[in-house]
Design a protein that fits this description.
The structure is a homodimer.
Chain A: H1 2-15, H2 22-29, H3 33-39, H4 43-67, H5 72-86, H6 89-94, H7 97-105, H8 110-137, H9 146-165, H10 172-179
Chain A binds a DNA duplex through α3.
Chain lengths: 184, 184
DNA sequence: TTTATTTGGGAACATTCATTCCCTAATATA
DNA sequence: TATATTAGGGAATGAATGTTCCCAAATAAA
């Protein structure tokens, strides 16, 4: 089931919700039409399932990236580096399902909008937490506003996925280096 | 014609390309089906026309915002403030056509991807120019890397449109204030 | 005034889509 | 072994989509 959802994630990331046909889904999930509808009520339910798995995986990847840092400041830096990395290459061209859902569905699908905003707030709270850790361990100055800075960084990370999907090259070290000024 | 395109822009921003039916378009453009196809070859051509007008209007608005600043640094600040403003309220919920096209079409429509990257590069070059102006007039330190900083700011602005479409509240003064640290 | 020409409108058409239905094979149950 | 239940596959279906075709009104030309 998870491997089928991984296929759905791939095609939903790349083409979005509306441009993905059931035919695209059955090919990507390696399941016949009837089997898809036996496992999910409809296309929307497949999307919801894929979105849930996508966010779970991404949250875990981001947490692992943060864990590579020895203090709060370094943990923020590794999170930013991780975002740049995921915004590039094959995965970057494929795109982010949160960004895609926000852009394509949040105006017309209240349920998806709620899930998107929830995910954004989770990510934002995670970064704000890292900033506060850094202030506690002395690696980030106390005058930095954790909430405002985290919100701006969320904008940066979501924007990275947009720019990455448009295939502009992104240099992780340089961009993260500049972004770390926000913690000065 | 421009007023018809404005209607098309409205609906394309809100729903994107694939979720916008010809019925949606005729309603928004106040034109019958036949009239739309007399003015444009097909739906894709309507989208191209709307995209062209959208970017022209947005570039002009951004230039006007920049002109409100007395030096390079202030001009950058006003551009950021303008982006936050446009990412909020009714326009923010409607969404940005460049972001929407990047996310929905750049993987499947090479022509649109080219237009999107061209627009992103134009915006980026504009901001980089403002930074260099600031370095010339002394309002921005010379050690700031104009290109890297501009690219990061483009990510921020595109991300603002994503977050704004998801309806998270954005405080222009606070966010722009934090972002100005990038020019330190 | 009469005749072309253009402009706007909407019904008709073919295609594509999401969904349902039913069949077959495999596994579990008795 | 015989039967019941599940899982998977794919054709059939009805709705919706993009596009074309043709009509009617208005304007320009004769």
């Amino acid at each position: 089931m998870d491997t089928a959802l991984d296929g759905a994630i791939r095609v939903f990331c790349e083409r979005g919700y509306h441009a993905t046909s059931i035919g695209d889904l059955t090919a990507a999930m390696r399941l016949a039409t009837g089997s898809v509808y036996k496992a999910f009520r409809d296309k929307h339910a497949v999307f919801l399932g894929a979105f849930g798995r996508y966010t779970a995986v991404r949250v875990e990847q981001t947490r692992r990236a943060a864990a590579r840092g020895a203090n709060g400041r370094e943990r923020v830096r590794h999170v930013l580096l991780s975002y740049v990395e995921h915004s590039q290459g094959a995965e970057g061209r494929r795109g982010c399902m949160v960004v895609g859902s926000a852009v394509e569905l949040s105006a017309v699908d209240p349920e998806m909008r709620a899930r998107v905003t929830a995910q954004l707030k989770t990510n934002e709270a995670f970064i704000a937490g890292l900033i506060r850790e850094g202030q506690a361990d002395g690696s980030i100055p106390g005058h930095v506003d954790a909430d405002d800075t985290a919100r701006l960084m969320i904008c940066m990370t979501q924007g990275l996925r947009v720019v990455g999907k448009a295939r502009l090259p992104l240099d992780g070290e340089r961009l993260a280096g500049v972004a770390m000024k926000l913690l000065a």
